[in-house]
Amino acid sequence: MTWYSRQESFMSRNERFSTTNQTSHVFKPHGRIDSEVVGNIFVQEATGPFNKEIFAAMRSVHASAKEQLPSVGNWYGLFIFRNSALAPQEMLDDLYEYLKDQKHQNRASRATAIVLPEVVEAASLMKPLYLRVWRKAGITCEAFTDEQLARAWLDSVLKSPID
Questions:
Q1: pLDDT at 63
Q2: What pTM, to 2 d.p., does this model score?
Q3: Which residues, 6 or more positions from 126, have their beta carbon under 8 angstroms from its beta carbon?
Q4: How far apart are CA 35 and CA 20, in angstroms?
Q5: Are 64 and 36 a contacting pair, CB within 8 Å?
Q6: Tens-digit pLDDT profile for the chain (163 aa)?
Q7: What are φ and ψ of residue 116, in 5° steps?
Q8: Which value, to the nearest 10 degrees, does the dihedral of the CA atoms of residues 162, 99, 135, 30 take?
């Protein structure tokens, strides 16, 4: 193989893998949200940063996970952030619309505790934004830096009379 043919082979491979040749405008979801139901608590571990596309994936995961929630009685949310809490405004807007819809259909949590440890990137920046989303949707919500404090708060809400 000559130097010229090796260079041509290299150039064609480089072009084939170039992102400039991609025509799709759909982005892969950034971040990860793992969900599980433990008793009457819907636990979600969210590892960011996130993009708008993560929300579509989250809706699908929620639909499956929520099938495991008790059909009678109240359930509660525990949303735990890992690594980063950063998300674009479009994702927050979509989250608000989703929560508002869930509340309207009487399918929202009675209360949600958000855990934003201080080591999570942008925790202090995003805390008021996430709280605003849940509260604006009509869901009781508090934020904590410690998971045990969040669970204690959920326990106290669980024992309080239903509004």
A1: 79
A2: 0.81
A3: 85, 86, 87, 116
A4: 35
A5: no
A6: 554 555 554 444 433 343 334 444 577 888 999 999 898 899 999 999 999 888 888 887 777 787 887 765 689 999 999 999 999 999 999 999 999 999 998 889 999 999 999 999 999 999 999 999 999 999 999 999 999 999 999 999 988 876 5
A7: -125, 85
A8: 130
Distance between CA atoms of residues 122 and 70, nearest Å: 34
2 burial (CB, 10 Å; 0-12 / 13-18 / 19+) is exposed
Residue 111 is given by DSSP the state: E
**Structure tokens, 105:** 């259909």
Run of H or E residues at 132: helix 123-136
Neighbouring-strand partners of residue 144: 115
Scan for tokens 């090796």, then name that residue: 6
Residue type, 46: A
End-to-end CA distance of the chain: 79
Long-range contacts of the stretch 73-76 (C-beta < 8 A, 24+): 73/40, 74/40, 74/110, 74/158, 74/162, 75/37, 75/40, 75/41, 75/42, 75/109, 75/110, 76/40, 76/41, 76/42, 76/109, 76/110, 76/111, 76/112, 76/113, 76/154, 76/157, 76/158
